[in-house]
Amino acid sequence: MSSSSPSPLLEVDLHAGKPPMLRAEATGDALGWAAEHRDALRAAVAVHGAVLVRGIGLRDAAEIAAVFRRLAAGLMTEREAFAARQTYSDGVYSSSKWPPNQPMCMHHELSYTLEIPGLMLFACLEAPTDGGATGVADAPTVLDALPAEPVTRFEREGWLLVRNYNDEIGASFAEAFGTSDRGAVESYCRANAIEFEWQPDGGLRTRQRRSAVVAHPVTGRRCWFNQIAFLNEWTLDPEVREFLVDVYGADGLPFNTCFGNGDPIGEDVVRLLNEVYEAHTAREPWQPGDLMLVDNIRTAHSREPFTGSREVLVAMADAVRVADCSPTVEVTAR
């Protein structure tokens, strides 16, 4: 069962279980197509929350970067990354380095920062042999599908992200903050409502409390907006979690999430969140040359396990302060 929904000059195909798709006729000029259709494409994203553009025929990283810059108001430099990325050019990155056999479950990019990307841009240069789709899920729909009890608590308390930066796993603090200068890292943390504590081994532990539900800055719709499940220990592969706990201890995991008051989040809650996300996931296998735009506040995204080589470029754009969406949940004194 399918239908089509028009936006100015563009028609987006809607199929159950698949992201909204626009079939482009770029005739070898992806940048020209992007320039001509920018406003209509952005209008389609505003209507649908995400749009996969097929047929634009993106050919290399330089062309992708030019198209990204033409479509977005401004590309962002990533801060507080949880995993390393390759940088192709200013504001254009590889997908996060994450084991191919492990899924990256639904999340909103940088939802734990105070300045977040309003728009995510993805482009595929090389599609994997199998799997590897970037799934999407509508955040207001997910919020409506969640039981009232956990939502009420998360709305009241927010959620707490605890990170332990080291040089062995995940992003080091120098990679995450863009500097190895401790003073600069401390200044950033103070300016961004992040508690920090330097460890005897030279590592860094941080804690930041954020809102779990925010109002979309344009529509005002309430969105389930966080990385509670994605960065929680119970989303990790059980063998990986057991190994990390053995090596670093339960309090030393590279990242973990808690209720806003610091209470641990049970495995049952994390399973529930991931099940609701899965029930509302739309997915389409990548094809080389594809482009996808995602409203990062309205729409969560994921990355499915894959085999073979996969090269998907990413940009974060149209920065918005979380306070514009919903009051930031400040870190409480301890």
TrEMBL record:
Q: Which GO terms describe its biological process?
A: antibiotic biosynthetic process
Annotated GO molecular function terms are: oxidoreductase activity
By its UniProt entry, which SUPFAM superfamilies does this protein fall under?
Clavaminate synthase-like (SSF51197)
Cofactors demanded by this protein? Fe(2+)
- Note whether Oxidoreductase occurs among the keywords: yes
Q: State what protein this is by name.
A: TauD/TfdA-like domain-containing protein
- Looking at the record, the residues that make up the TauD/TfdA-like domain are 33-315
Q: Does the keyword Cytoplasm apply?
A: no
Give TM segment ranges.
none
Record's InterPro entries?
A: AlphaKG_dependent_hydroxylases (IPR050411), TauD-like_sf (IPR042098), TauD/TfdA-like (IPR003819)
- Write down a Pfam family by its short name: TauD
Entry keyword set: Antibiotic biosynthesis, Iron, Oxidoreductase
